[in-house]
Amino acid sequence: MTAGERDTALLSVRDLRTYLATRHGVVRAVDGVSLEVREAEVLGVVGESGCGKTVTCRTIMGLMPRKGTYSSGEVIYHPRGEANLLTVSQKELQRLRGSQLAMIFQDPMTALNPVRTVGDQLIEAVTAHARMSREEAHGRAISLLVRVGIPAPDQRMKDYPFQFSGGMLQRALIAIALASEPKLLLADEPTTSLDVIIQDQILSLLLELQRDTGMSMILVSHDLAVITEVCDRIVVMYGGQIVEEGDTATIISEPRHPYTRALLEALPQGGERGQLRSIPGAPPSLIDAPPGCRFAPRCPLATDECSSWATELLDTDGPGHRVRCWRHQEVRGSATWQASDSA
Amino acid sequence: MTSQRFAGGSGGSSPRASWTLHPSEALLKVAERTAKRSRSTGRRRMVLIIGLAMLGIAILAIVGAPLLAGVSPIKIDVLHPLSPPGTGGHLLGTDQFGRDVLARILYGGRIDLAIAFGATSVTLVFGTIVGLVAGYFGGWVDNLLMRIVDLFFAFPFLVLIIAIIAMLGPSIFNMFVAIWITSWVSYARIMRAQTIVAKKQQYVLAARALGYSRMRVMFRHIMPNTVSAVIVFSMVDAIGNIILAASLGFLGLGAQPPSPEWGTMISDGQNYILSSWWIATLPGLAIVFVGVAFSLIGDGLADILRPGDR
Amino acid sequence: MSRFGTLPRRLIHLVIILFGITLVTFFLLRLIPGDPALAILGSSYTHARATAIDASLGLNKPIWTQYGLFMDHLFHGNLGYSYFYSESATTVISQHLAPTVFLVIYSAVLAAAISLPLGFISGVRRGGVVDQSTRVFFTISFAMPAFWLGIIMLLVFSVHLNVFPLSGFGAGIIGHLHSLFLPALTIALGFSTVLIRSLRAATISTLQAEFIDTARMKGIAYPTVLRRHVFRVAVLAVVAVYGVNLAYLISGTVLVENVFSLPGLGQLLVNSVSNRDYPVVQAVALLFAVLIVLINLLTDITQASLDPRVGQEIGE
After folding, report:
1. Using the beta-carbon criterion (under 8 Å), do B250 and C155 form an inter-chain contact?
2. Is A227 within 8 Å of A303 (Cβ atoms)?
3. Residue B235 phi/psi, 5° resolution?
4. In this predicted complex, what is the ipTM?
5. What does the alpha-carbon distance between residue B101 and residue B245 come to, in Å, rounded to a whole number?
6. Which of C28, C140, C296 lies nearest to residue B163, judging by beta carbons?
7. Domain segments of chain B: what residues?
């Protein structure tokens, strides 16, 4: 793929903020996130629990609860006349969902209506944006189940969610998401609640589907190993903000943010027996976020200046490689780098 | 290449009905306003306070009946039957025998409130213990106890109580007995369900591991943690018992004349409903007042003990 | 695996309960302090009649024989003898059955008609006008004794507004519907409080479920999501509550029949108590209990057919 082909932006998120008004204060779940997804591209979003990756996806899809959620910024969907998804009417949003944007969630067991058959729910997705006869819809549904690798589709159409295993159910959910042929699929931790072997199968399936249909994907995970396997570009989030972004190869070989570096070091190295490295400390509170770098309390490179620096994403020498750290030069190739070991 | 400045609302069609887009700078302030509001526990406490106040008023009025009423509730005054409220020194009028309605309401409240507290508390204690034992020990103990509970549930309460009172003879005491026999089952069921969930929790496993006796674990550990559901239910049950007592009185199966009781008063007043509405209506209002008080207390307690979203 | 896998188990359970009911009702009569025959006959006591009663109830025989006699009578459709009406209890009961059954069904339908929309809307638009006003209204009405509410209704609608008849069963289906509207409404209001609260809570919790997000993500209209997913799942929680509270509803008929002078089983029960017609009291109590057991069975079956997960339960 040449750079030219992949240059058309599909979705542009600009300065997205989502604040949640809770009993304990305002949670700044997403605090100034900007990203871009190009056509036929797989973008990975990686970060710990609570870093804002799920809320970002839900805000894009408009699935955040009405009460107590406050958002600002732009979510521009280019193919539909640069519409800002945050301000479009309910009707327009409904038209876009399913046919242009789709999402799959983490736990397949709770993601389907337990008292209706999987077939019913799949047909519901198939007919959401297209009129067709019942036989046609049924046929479409069957072919979708086949496409995602579910055996005996005729029988499975009549089954209920509790009769499926986790992996099979996730495949069914993928079928549902793809029913109206969306251009962008948001996958929020699609493999986290599955066991390792199934994880691989689902990831391969997603990749295969993406290649076949040319759709774009945003893959969210806390597992960097999963992300690096599948994604073209990566965005690293921490404390509601993006701390590094760039293409996968660069991020893996030349991480420029201490947090990214720590994440890479925390990956178990195959074949070696060494100590498991983890990142000391706890994720930051998103309420009353202090000024300055949010990673500073846990960062081995932190200085006093870091806590007062009004952070922003800085360019590095790599194309499209930006990082939210003013000491990023020192991060790369630092021989004295060591993430400490903790229980 | 740096982040773009916000250009609010450009290029969009009409805004969504449920969303308002705020400029980034103002976002925090707007969110804070809502956060502060949801933090206020004032509203929840208010409900509980109002309920307790209402109940307090009722109790005071009833306990202080001799002072407030001034007249005996059973004193018949043949000269002034069916006087409307406000006439002849009777604030709430008189009934068909010339008895002061206000006095009868205040004195009558004693019986109904006695049932609310006396009957409820006994069934609460007994039912809770049964439920605790059944839930904790499981096995045949549980089976046996729950079959008995199911049996009682098979009968409509009122019918069973009427049948029991029919056999024992109508009286205030027999009302208590009938309620004691039948009402404990609800508490048993609730407590059993709670206990079954609780006994799998960490703190119970820990207590057992430490070697505490089963009795101790049941009463000192499980019960305090699960009793909130039962307490909330007891408020509902109290209302039910008051209404039950009034219903029995209404049917002539509870308090016997000339004892004043809200239900019997309503029954008496039924015959005079067309001309003297106050005899039947006012006691009912008293029941509603006390009932609402218990309701509010129950709601308030539920909110405090289980702070979910209302 | 059949969807009704646990049905045989439930049937056995049912039979056990039914036996238990007969035991309890049997002992009811034995609760009477003193001589039952004297209590039953009262002032029409003669030695001959007392001996007859002793024979039919087996009062002089050991308790197990008495129970056997009781059960034997039951299986032959003999519910006892009404000394007040001088007819078999079965006859007396069948004469009073229709109004009560009609009333129960009518109230059940009215209660559903009131609670389902109000409960659902209260849950969907939490804190809205419907929610707040419903809550206030039903908190107050919950504290109202059914019989008192009935009297007030009578006062307002029958006496002053003259819209509904003061008493009686009415003639023909339309007549029944008309005459029984106020009593059915009285019962339904009491019943609805719990239903609304349950449905509201179930709706709120269902709205937060992830499958609702999946449904919305498909791009179908929100009202459709509410109907096909939220309501469909939330209402299941209410079915169970509905069945349980039906017992409460049946208790309500006793009082309401009295207030509205309906010649049903409830009135029969109360009158029989004052008439010391103990066998009838016993028979009516038995009948009510059996009715409730049947209603519970019906509820279970409904639940199983609506919710495929229920049939799979192995334990409680």
Report:
1. no
2. no
3. -65, -45
4. 0.86
5. 19
6. C28
7. 45-74+92-309
Q: What's the fold here for domain B45-74+92-309?
A: MetI-like fold (1.10.3720)
Nearest to C251 among B156, B274, B290 (CB): B156
Q: What is the pTM of this model?
A: 0.82
Domain ranges of chain A: 3-238, 241-342
Please write down the long-range contacts of C15-21, taking CB distance under 8 Å and 24 or more positions apart.
C16/B147, C17/B150, C17/B151, C17/B154, C17/C293, C18/C290, C18/C293, C20/B147, C20/B150, C20/B151, C20/B154, C21/B151, C21/B154, C21/B155, C21/C286, C21/C289, C21/C290, C21/C293
The letter for the amino acid at C177 is L
CB atoms B4 and A86 under 8 Å? no
**Among A61, A77, A91, A94, the residue to mutate for chain C (most C Cβ within 10 A):** A94
CB C134 within 8 A of CB C118: yes
DSSP, collapsed to helix, strand or coil, labels residue A41 as coil
C-alpha distance from A61 to closest chain C C-alpha (Å): 8
In this structure, of A145-149, B187-191, C62-66, the range with the lowest mean pLDDT score is C62-66
Contact B296 C139 (CB under 8 A): yes
Shortest CA gap C230–chain A (Å): 9
Among the listed residues B293, B299, B245, the one whose alpha carbon sits nearest the alpha carbon of residue B54: B293
Whether A129 and A156 have beta carbons less than 8 Å apart is answered as no
Nearest to A21 among B2, B7, B34 (CB): B34
CA distance C203 to chain A (A): 14
CB A98 within 8 A of CB A129: yes
DSSP 8-state assignment for residue A323: E
Which residue among C146, C281, C288 sits closest to B156, beta carbon to beta carbon? Answer: C288
Number of other residues whose CB lies within 10 A of the CB of residue C226: 19
How near does any CA of chain B get to the CA of A256, in Å? 18
Are A34 and B4 a contacting pair at CB < 8 A?
A: yes
pLDDT in tens, B32-60: 877 777 666 666 778 888 888 988 888 88
DSSP per residue over A182-193, as a string? -SEEEEESTTTT
Instruction: Rank A92-101, B159-168, B206-215, C56-65 by mean pLDDT and report only the highest.
Output: A92-101
In chain B, the residue whose alpha carbon lies closest to the alpha carbon of A70 is B31
Which three-class secondary structure state does DSSP give residue C51?
helix
The SS3 of residue A6 is helix
Q: Which CATH number fits domain A3-238: 3.40.50.10490, 3.40.50.300, 3.90.1150.10, 3.30.390.50?
A: 3.40.50.300
pLDDT in tens, A262-301: 888 887 766 666 666 777 778 888 887 777 888 888 888 8
Contact call for A160 and C233, based on CB within 8 A: no
Contact A186, A57 (CB under 8 A): yes
Residue A287, beta-bridge partner list = A27
- Report residue C7's pLDDT band, with 50, 70 and 90 as the boundaries: low
Count of A-C CB contacts under 8 Å: 80
